């Protein structure tokens, strides 16, 4: 059975975040239980010895970059390798 659409318009929802909102999203990443964690790094901001990490493309660069986010809930510092 096929259903005929009343309208063939495709919608696109663009979400724009302020810099502060992006920072909060990255801090929430530290609490994500699905991301790998490492104790082989030390946060240069607070000295905490645990961070989550993930790979993503860095803005303006080709290839993947390894990003770290400090697991200290009072810090949330992020850096890349």
Question: Topology of this protein?
Answer:
Elements: H1 19-29, E1 37-38, E2 51-57, E3 64-70, E4 78-80
Antiparallel strand pairs: 1-2, 2-3, 3-4
GO cellular component, one term: nucleolus
Domain TFIIS-type: 39-80
Keywords: DNA-directed RNA polymerase, Metal-binding, Nucleus, Transcription, Zinc, Zinc-finger
Describe the structure.
This protein is α+β, with helices and mostly antiparallel strands. It has a domain at 51-81. It is 14% helix and 23% strand. The chain is built from 1 helix and 4 strands. The chain has one helix at residues 19-29; strands spanning 37-38, 51-57, 64-70, 78-80. It is elongated and about 60 Å long. It comes from Olea europaea subsp. europaea. This is DNA-directed RNA polymerases II, IV and V subunit 9A. One of its GO terms (cellular component) is RNA polymerase II, core complex.
Short structural summary:
It comes from Olea europaea subsp. europaea. The chain has 81 residues and is of the alpha+beta class.
Mean pLDDT: 80
Question: What is the rounded distance between the termini?
Answer: 53 Å
Low-confidence stretches: 20-24
Number of helices in the DSSP assignment: 1
Descriptive labels:
single chain, 81 residues, alpha+beta, 4-stranded antiparallel beta sheet, 1 helix, 4 strands, 23% strand
